[in-house]
Design a protein that fits this description.
By secondary structure, this protein is an alpha/beta fold. Helix content is 38%, strand content 22%. It has a nine-stranded mixed β-sheet with strand order 9-8-10-11-7-12-13-14-15, sandwiched between helices. A six-stranded antiparallel β-sheet has the order 3-2-1-6-5-4, covered by helices on one side. Helix 2 crosses helix 4 (68-83), helix 3 (44-62) crosses helix 4 (68-83) and helix 10 runs parallel beside helix 11 (299-308). InterPro entries: P-loop_NTPase, T2SS/T4SS_dom, T4SS_GSP_E_ATPase.
Protein backbone atom coordinates (compact mmCIF):
# COMPACT_ATOMS: atom_id res chain seq x y z
CA UNK A 1 0.00 0.00 0.00
CA UNK A 2 1.50 3.34 -1.05
CA UNK A 3 1.57 6.40 1.21
CA UNK A 4 -1.35 8.06 -0.59
CA UNK A 5 -3.62 5.04 -0.19
CA UNK A 6 -2.55 4.62 3.42
CA UNK A 7 -3.37 8.25 4.15
CA UNK A 8 -6.76 7.87 2.47
CA UNK A 9 -7.52 4.74 4.48
CA UNK A 10 -6.72 6.53 7.75
CA UNK A 11 -8.93 9.45 6.74
CA UNK A 12 -11.88 7.13 6.07
CA UNK A 13 -11.57 5.81 9.62
CA UNK A 14 -11.74 9.25 11.27
CA UNK A 15 -14.80 10.55 13.11
CA UNK A 16 -14.79 13.54 10.75
CA UNK A 17 -15.20 11.34 7.69
CA UNK A 18 -17.80 9.13 9.38
CA UNK A 19 -19.91 12.17 10.30
CA UNK A 20 -19.62 13.52 6.76
CA UNK A 21 -20.62 10.17 5.30
CA UNK A 22 -23.57 9.91 7.70
CA UNK A 23 -24.82 13.40 6.78
CA UNK A 24 -24.48 12.59 3.08
CA UNK A 25 -26.40 9.36 3.51
CA UNK A 26 -29.29 11.17 5.22
CA UNK A 27 -29.28 13.76 2.42
CA UNK A 28 -29.47 11.07 -0.26
CA UNK A 29 -32.25 9.18 1.54
CA UNK A 30 -34.29 12.39 1.83
CA UNK A 31 -33.68 13.12 -1.86
CA UNK A 32 -34.71 9.61 -2.94
CA UNK A 33 -37.87 9.74 -0.84
CA UNK A 34 -38.74 13.23 -2.05
CA UNK A 35 -38.42 12.17 -5.69
CA UNK A 36 -40.04 8.78 -5.03
CA UNK A 37 -37.12 6.94 -6.66
CA UNK A 38 -36.94 3.15 -6.59
CA UNK A 39 -33.19 2.76 -6.86
CA UNK A 40 -33.33 -0.90 -5.79
CA UNK A 41 -34.68 -1.60 -9.29
CA UNK A 42 -31.88 0.29 -11.03
CA UNK A 43 -28.85 -1.42 -12.55
CA UNK A 44 -25.44 -0.84 -10.98
CA UNK A 45 -24.31 1.68 -13.63
CA UNK A 46 -27.35 3.89 -13.14
CA UNK A 47 -26.96 3.84 -9.35
CA UNK A 48 -23.28 4.72 -9.66
CA UNK A 49 -23.95 7.68 -11.95
CA UNK A 50 -26.78 8.98 -9.74
CA UNK A 51 -24.75 8.78 -6.53
CA UNK A 52 -21.63 10.34 -8.08
CA UNK A 53 -23.62 13.30 -9.40
CA UNK A 54 -25.47 13.85 -6.10
CA UNK A 55 -22.24 13.65 -4.12
CA UNK A 56 -20.66 16.24 -6.43
CA UNK A 57 -23.63 18.61 -5.98
CA UNK A 58 -23.69 18.08 -2.22
CA UNK A 59 -20.00 18.94 -1.89
CA UNK A 60 -20.50 22.10 -3.93
CA UNK A 61 -23.63 23.20 -2.03
CA UNK A 62 -22.05 22.59 1.36
CA UNK A 63 -18.71 24.13 0.25
CA UNK A 64 -16.87 21.14 1.68
CA UNK A 65 -13.04 21.12 1.56
CA UNK A 66 -12.97 17.73 -0.19
CA UNK A 67 -10.51 16.75 -2.93
CA UNK A 68 -11.26 14.40 -5.82
CA UNK A 69 -9.96 11.26 -4.11
CA UNK A 70 -12.07 11.98 -1.04
CA UNK A 71 -15.07 12.73 -3.24
CA UNK A 72 -14.65 9.39 -5.02
CA UNK A 73 -14.39 7.62 -1.65
CA UNK A 74 -17.57 9.33 -0.45
CA UNK A 75 -19.41 8.29 -3.61
CA UNK A 76 -18.31 4.69 -3.25
CA UNK A 77 -19.25 4.54 0.42
CA UNK A 78 -22.58 6.28 -0.21
CA UNK A 79 -23.40 3.76 -2.93
CA UNK A 80 -22.58 0.88 -0.57
CA UNK A 81 -24.84 2.41 2.09
CA UNK A 82 -27.74 2.78 -0.31
CA UNK A 83 -27.70 -0.54 -2.16
CA UNK A 84 -25.07 -2.64 -0.39
CA UNK A 85 -23.96 -3.61 3.08
CA UNK A 86 -22.33 -0.35 4.04
CA UNK A 87 -18.72 -0.44 5.32
CA UNK A 88 -18.40 -4.21 4.88
CA UNK A 89 -19.51 -4.30 1.22
CA UNK A 90 -15.91 -4.20 0.01
CA UNK A 91 -15.13 -7.17 2.28
CA UNK A 92 -18.13 -9.09 0.95
CA UNK A 93 -16.86 -8.46 -2.59
CA UNK A 94 -13.30 -9.59 -1.76
CA UNK A 95 -13.00 -13.28 -2.71
CA UNK A 96 -9.89 -13.68 -0.55
CA UNK A 97 -11.92 -12.95 2.62
CA UNK A 98 -13.50 -16.05 4.15
CA UNK A 99 -15.09 -14.60 7.31
CA UNK A 100 -16.25 -11.15 8.38
CA UNK A 101 -16.72 -10.48 12.10
CA UNK A 102 -18.19 -7.23 13.44
CA UNK A 103 -17.86 -6.68 17.21
CA UNK A 104 -19.57 -3.32 17.48
CA UNK A 105 -18.98 -0.24 15.30
CA UNK A 106 -15.21 0.10 15.74
CA UNK A 107 -14.06 -3.52 15.70
CA UNK A 108 -14.28 -5.28 12.35
CA UNK A 109 -12.14 -8.35 11.65
CA UNK A 110 -11.63 -10.57 8.61
CA UNK A 111 -10.18 -14.00 8.08
CA UNK A 112 -7.85 -14.66 5.18
CA UNK A 113 -6.00 -17.94 4.82
CA UNK A 114 -7.11 -19.10 8.27
CA UNK A 115 -5.85 -15.98 10.09
CA UNK A 116 -7.90 -13.18 11.66
CA UNK A 117 -6.81 -9.57 11.17
CA UNK A 118 -8.28 -6.12 11.74
CA UNK A 119 -10.16 -4.73 8.75
CA UNK A 120 -9.61 -1.12 7.73
CA UNK A 121 -13.32 -0.25 7.96
CA UNK A 122 -15.64 0.96 10.70
CA UNK A 123 -19.24 1.93 11.38
CA UNK A 124 -20.47 5.26 12.73
CA UNK A 125 -22.24 3.83 15.79
CA UNK A 126 -24.35 0.93 17.05
CA UNK A 127 -27.40 2.12 15.10
CA UNK A 128 -25.33 2.00 11.91
CA UNK A 129 -24.38 -1.65 12.56
CA UNK A 130 -28.02 -2.55 13.22
CA UNK A 131 -29.11 -0.79 10.03
CA UNK A 132 -26.68 -2.86 7.96
CA UNK A 133 -27.80 -6.05 9.73
CA UNK A 134 -31.43 -5.25 8.88
CA UNK A 135 -30.47 -4.60 5.26
CA UNK A 136 -28.76 -8.01 5.12
CA UNK A 137 -31.76 -9.78 6.65
CA UNK A 138 -34.64 -7.90 5.02
CA UNK A 139 -34.52 -9.57 1.55
CA UNK A 140 -34.78 -13.00 3.17
CA UNK A 141 -37.69 -12.05 5.40
CA UNK A 142 -35.82 -12.00 8.70
CA UNK A 143 -35.17 -9.26 11.23
CA UNK A 144 -33.44 -8.77 14.56
CA UNK A 145 -34.59 -6.55 17.44
CA UNK A 146 -35.05 -6.63 21.21
CA UNK A 147 -37.82 -9.20 20.95
CA UNK A 148 -35.73 -11.41 18.63
CA UNK A 149 -32.14 -10.49 19.52
CA UNK A 150 -30.47 -13.45 17.79
CA UNK A 151 -30.81 -14.66 14.24
CA UNK A 152 -29.17 -17.24 11.98
CA UNK A 153 -29.73 -16.77 8.27
CA UNK A 154 -28.40 -17.59 4.85
CA UNK A 155 -27.78 -15.05 2.12
CA UNK A 156 -28.93 -15.79 -1.45
CA UNK A 157 -25.33 -16.70 -2.39
CA UNK A 158 -25.20 -19.29 0.41
CA UNK A 159 -23.16 -17.25 2.92
CA UNK A 160 -24.03 -17.91 6.56
CA UNK A 161 -25.01 -14.96 8.74
CA UNK A 162 -25.36 -14.71 12.51
CA UNK A 163 -26.42 -11.49 14.20
CA UNK A 164 -26.94 -10.73 17.87
CA UNK A 165 -27.90 -7.36 19.35
CA UNK A 166 -28.43 -5.78 22.79
CA UNK A 167 -29.64 -6.54 25.38
CA UNK A 168 -28.14 -10.01 24.73
CA UNK A 169 -24.93 -8.57 23.27
CA UNK A 170 -23.59 -6.41 26.08
CA UNK A 171 -20.99 -4.47 24.09
CA UNK A 172 -23.13 -3.62 21.09
CA UNK A 173 -24.52 -5.39 18.01
CA UNK A 174 -22.39 -8.18 16.56
CA UNK A 175 -22.42 -9.67 13.08
CA UNK A 176 -20.65 -12.76 11.73
CA UNK A 177 -20.60 -13.73 8.06
CA UNK A 178 -19.12 -17.01 6.85
CA UNK A 179 -18.79 -16.36 3.13
CA UNK A 180 -19.78 -18.91 0.54
CA UNK A 181 -17.13 -19.86 -1.98
CA UNK A 182 -18.15 -18.87 -5.48
CA UNK A 183 -16.23 -21.81 -6.89
CA UNK A 184 -16.20 -25.13 -5.07
CA UNK A 185 -12.87 -26.53 -3.95
CA UNK A 186 -11.47 -29.37 -6.04
CA UNK A 187 -9.21 -32.22 -5.10
CA UNK A 188 -6.36 -30.52 -6.95
CA UNK A 189 -6.87 -27.39 -4.84
CA UNK A 190 -6.38 -29.46 -1.68
CA UNK A 191 -3.29 -31.15 -3.09
CA UNK A 192 -1.79 -27.78 -4.00
CA UNK A 193 -2.30 -26.47 -0.46
CA UNK A 194 -0.98 -29.67 1.14
CA UNK A 195 -4.30 -30.42 2.86
CA UNK A 196 -3.91 -34.13 2.13
CA UNK A 197 -1.83 -36.50 0.04
CA UNK A 198 -2.59 -37.86 -3.41
CA UNK A 199 -2.97 -41.35 -1.97
CA UNK A 200 -5.52 -40.13 0.60
CA UNK A 201 -7.42 -38.17 -2.03
CA UNK A 202 -7.61 -41.17 -4.37
CA UNK A 203 -8.68 -43.40 -1.49
CA UNK A 204 -11.53 -41.07 -0.49
CA UNK A 205 -12.63 -40.76 -4.11
CA UNK A 206 -12.78 -44.54 -4.36
CA UNK A 207 -14.71 -44.89 -1.10
CA UNK A 208 -17.27 -42.23 -2.06
CA UNK A 209 -17.88 -43.96 -5.37
CA UNK A 210 -18.06 -47.25 -3.45
CA UNK A 211 -20.84 -45.84 -1.21
CA UNK A 212 -18.99 -45.79 2.11
CA UNK A 213 -20.77 -43.98 4.95
CA UNK A 214 -18.57 -41.13 6.23
CA UNK A 215 -18.57 -38.60 9.05
CA UNK A 216 -16.34 -35.53 8.71
CA UNK A 217 -15.17 -34.41 12.17
CA UNK A 218 -13.36 -31.28 13.26
CA UNK A 219 -13.54 -28.14 15.34
CA UNK A 220 -15.11 -24.79 14.55
CA UNK A 221 -13.72 -23.28 11.34
CA UNK A 222 -11.78 -26.42 10.45
CA UNK A 223 -13.44 -26.75 7.05
CA UNK A 224 -15.83 -29.64 7.71
CA UNK A 225 -18.60 -28.38 5.43
CA UNK A 226 -16.14 -27.39 2.70
CA UNK A 227 -14.64 -30.87 2.78
CA UNK A 228 -18.07 -32.51 2.78
CA UNK A 229 -18.92 -30.45 -0.28
CA UNK A 230 -15.78 -31.75 -1.99
CA UNK A 231 -16.65 -35.38 -1.22
CA UNK A 232 -20.22 -34.92 -2.44
CA UNK A 233 -18.94 -33.86 -5.87
CA UNK A 234 -17.82 -37.45 -6.44
CA UNK A 235 -21.28 -38.95 -6.03
CA UNK A 236 -22.39 -40.45 -9.38
CA UNK A 237 -24.91 -38.15 -11.09
CA UNK A 238 -27.36 -41.02 -11.55
CA UNK A 239 -28.01 -41.27 -7.80
CA UNK A 240 -30.83 -39.47 -5.99
CA UNK A 241 -29.40 -37.38 -3.15
CA UNK A 242 -31.35 -35.67 -0.35
CA UNK A 243 -29.49 -32.97 1.61
CA UNK A 244 -30.55 -31.71 5.04
CA UNK A 245 -28.97 -28.51 6.37
CA UNK A 246 -29.58 -25.75 8.88
CA UNK A 247 -28.21 -23.30 6.33
CA UNK A 248 -27.91 -24.65 2.80
CA UNK A 249 -24.23 -24.52 1.83
CA UNK A 250 -23.64 -27.70 -0.14
CA UNK A 251 -23.28 -27.24 -3.87
CA UNK A 252 -23.93 -30.55 -5.60
CA UNK A 253 -23.66 -30.44 -9.37
CA UNK A 254 -26.14 -33.26 -9.87
CA UNK A 255 -29.38 -33.52 -11.79
CA UNK A 256 -31.11 -35.41 -9.00
CA UNK A 257 -30.61 -33.47 -5.76
CA UNK A 258 -33.35 -32.43 -3.34
CA UNK A 259 -32.23 -29.74 -0.87
CA UNK A 260 -34.03 -29.46 2.46
CA UNK A 261 -33.42 -26.71 5.01
CA UNK A 262 -34.58 -26.44 8.61
CA UNK A 263 -36.87 -23.64 9.74
CA UNK A 264 -36.66 -21.87 13.11
CA UNK A 265 -39.80 -21.37 15.22
CA UNK A 266 -41.94 -18.29 14.61
CA UNK A 267 -42.44 -15.51 17.16
CA UNK A 268 -44.93 -17.73 19.03
CA UNK A 269 -42.33 -20.49 19.26
CA UNK A 270 -44.23 -22.75 16.88
CA UNK A 271 -43.97 -24.26 13.39
CA UNK A 272 -40.28 -25.08 13.61
CA UNK A 273 -38.96 -27.72 11.22
CA UNK A 274 -35.98 -29.51 12.74
CA UNK A 275 -33.18 -31.54 11.19
CA UNK A 276 -34.75 -34.65 12.70
CA UNK A 277 -38.06 -33.85 10.97
CA UNK A 278 -36.26 -33.48 7.66
CA UNK A 279 -34.12 -36.63 8.01
CA UNK A 280 -37.24 -38.65 8.80
CA UNK A 281 -39.00 -37.14 5.82
CA UNK A 282 -35.98 -37.75 3.60
CA UNK A 283 -36.24 -41.47 4.35
CA UNK A 284 -39.68 -41.43 2.68
CA UNK A 285 -38.38 -39.73 -0.47
CA UNK A 286 -36.61 -42.72 -2.00
CA UNK A 287 -33.05 -41.42 -1.49
CA UNK A 288 -29.96 -43.26 -2.65
CA UNK A 289 -27.91 -41.16 -0.23
CA UNK A 290 -28.73 -38.72 2.55
CA UNK A 291 -26.30 -35.91 3.34
CA UNK A 292 -26.80 -34.00 6.60
CA UNK A 293 -24.84 -30.76 6.82
CA UNK A 294 -24.10 -31.30 10.51
CA UNK A 295 -25.38 -33.71 13.14
CA UNK A 296 -25.82 -31.70 16.31
CA UNK A 297 -29.00 -32.98 17.99
CA UNK A 298 -31.57 -35.72 18.19
CA UNK A 299 -31.38 -36.34 14.43
CA UNK A 300 -28.33 -38.51 15.18
CA UNK A 301 -30.41 -41.65 15.69
CA UNK A 302 -32.30 -41.15 12.44
CA UNK A 303 -29.05 -40.54 10.58
CA UNK A 304 -27.49 -43.72 11.94
CA UNK A 305 -30.68 -45.60 11.10
CA UNK A 306 -30.51 -44.32 7.53
CA UNK A 307 -26.89 -45.47 7.24
CA UNK A 308 -27.89 -48.85 8.66
CA UNK A 309 -30.91 -49.45 6.44
CA UNK A 310 -29.67 -49.40 2.88
CA UNK A 311 -28.77 -45.75 2.35
CA UNK A 312 -25.09 -46.49 1.86
CA UNK A 313 -22.88 -43.60 0.86
CA UNK A 314 -24.55 -41.18 3.25
CA UNK A 315 -22.42 -38.46 4.83
CA UNK A 316 -22.52 -35.82 7.52
CA UNK A 317 -20.25 -33.64 9.69
CA UNK A 318 -19.82 -33.66 13.46
CA UNK A 319 -18.20 -31.20 15.83
CA UNK A 320 -15.38 -33.15 17.51
CA UNK A 321 -11.61 -32.83 17.78
CA UNK A 322 -10.71 -36.43 16.88
CA UNK A 323 -12.42 -39.65 15.73
CA UNK A 324 -12.35 -41.08 19.26
CA UNK A 325 -14.03 -37.93 20.58
CA UNK A 326 -16.54 -38.21 17.73
CA UNK A 327 -17.73 -41.55 19.09
CA UNK A 328 -18.26 -40.02 22.53
CA UNK A 329 -20.06 -37.10 20.90
CA UNK A 330 -22.40 -39.48 19.09
CA UNK A 331 -23.14 -41.23 22.39
CA UNK A 332 -23.93 -37.90 24.03
CA UNK A 333 -26.26 -36.85 21.23
CA UNK A 334 -27.98 -40.23 21.30
CA UNK A 335 -28.66 -39.72 24.99
CA UNK A 336 -30.26 -36.36 24.19
CA UNK A 337 -32.37 -38.15 21.57
CA UNK A 338 -33.73 -40.53 24.23
CA UNK A 339 -31.55 -43.57 23.58
CA UNK A 340 -31.71 -45.82 26.65
CA UNK A 341 -29.86 -48.90 25.42
CA UNK A 342 -26.45 -50.06 26.53
CA UNK A 343 -23.21 -48.44 25.44
CA UNK A 344 -22.11 -51.66 23.77
CA UNK A 345 -25.29 -51.85 21.68
CA UNK A 346 -24.96 -48.22 20.61
CA UNK A 347 -21.31 -48.63 19.65
CA UNK A 348 -22.27 -51.70 17.65
CA UNK A 349 -24.83 -49.57 15.79
CA UNK A 350 -22.18 -46.95 15.05
CA UNK A 351 -19.72 -49.59 13.82
CA UNK A 352 -22.31 -51.08 11.46
CA UNK A 353 -23.45 -47.64 10.22
CA UNK A 354 -20.21 -45.67 9.83
CA UNK A 355 -17.33 -46.82 7.63
CA UNK A 356 -14.97 -43.86 7.95
CA UNK A 357 -14.25 -40.83 10.09
CA UNK A 358 -12.36 -38.06 8.29
CA UNK A 359 -10.74 -35.66 10.76
CA UNK A 360 -10.02 -32.15 9.45
CA UNK A 361 -8.34 -29.40 11.43
CA UNK A 362 -7.08 -25.84 11.17
CA UNK A 363 -3.53 -25.51 12.48
CA UNK A 364 -2.17 -22.52 14.37
CA UNK A 365 -0.57 -21.39 11.10
CA UNK A 366 -4.04 -21.10 9.56
CA UNK A 367 -3.45 -24.10 7.28
CA UNK A 368 -6.19 -26.72 7.05
CA UNK A 369 -5.16 -30.36 7.07
CA UNK A 370 -6.79 -33.75 6.91
CA UNK A 371 -5.37 -35.04 10.18
CA UNK A 372 -6.63 -38.60 9.85
CA UNK A 373 -8.79 -40.93 7.78
CA UNK A 374 -9.96 -43.52 10.26
CA UNK A 375 -11.65 -46.83 9.56
CA UNK A 376 -14.47 -47.99 11.85
CA UNK A 377 -14.91 -51.72 12.44
CA UNK A 378 -15.81 -54.24 15.10
CA UNK A 379 -14.32 -57.51 16.25
CA UNK A 380 -15.22 -60.19 18.74
CA UNK A 381 -15.29 -58.76 22.24
CA UNK A 382 -15.17 -55.13 21.06
CA UNK A 383 -18.23 -53.64 19.33
CA UNK A 384 -16.33 -50.65 17.91
CA UNK A 385 -12.70 -50.18 17.02
CA UNK A 386 -10.88 -47.39 15.18
CA UNK A 387 -7.86 -47.74 12.91
CA UNK A 388 -6.05 -44.87 11.18
CA UNK A 389 -5.47 -45.49 7.48
CA UNK A 390 -3.92 -42.08 6.83
CA UNK A 391 -2.55 -39.57 9.32
CA UNK A 392 -0.83 -36.20 9.20
CA UNK A 393 2.22 -36.20 11.47
CA UNK A 394 2.71 -32.77 13.04
CA UNK A 395 6.32 -33.40 14.03
CA UNK A 396 7.52 -34.26 10.54
CA UNK A 397 4.77 -32.26 8.76
CA UNK A 398 4.17 -35.28 6.52
CA UNK A 399 1.11 -37.20 5.40
CA UNK A 400 1.52 -40.86 6.33
CA UNK A 401 -0.11 -43.79 4.55
CA UNK A 402 -0.71 -46.44 7.22
CA UNK A 403 -2.74 -48.93 5.22
CA UNK A 404 0.03 -51.48 5.01
CA UNK A 405 0.19 -51.57 8.81
CA UNK A 406 -3.58 -51.80 9.22
Amino acid sequence: MNASNDQMMRFRLTDQYQQLKSALHKHLIALIEDRNLDIDQWDATRVERFVAEQVRLYIMQQRLPVNQRESDALAQDARDELVGFGPIQSLVDDDSVNDIVVNGPNKVFIERGGRLSVAAVRFVNDAHVVRVIQRILSPIGRRVDESTPMVDARLPDGSRVNAIVPPIALDGPCLSIRKFRRTALTGEDLLNTGTLSRAALDYLHERVRGRANMIIVGGTGSGKTTFLNLLSQWIPPTERVITVEDAAELRLEHDHVVRLETRPPNLEGQRAVTARDLVRNALRMRPDRIIVGEVRGDEVMDMLQAMNTGHDGSMTTLHANAPKEAVHRLELLAGFAGYTGSEANFRSQVASAVNLFVHVSRLVTGERKVMAITEVYSEEGDPLKLRDLFRFDLDSAQHLDLRSAA
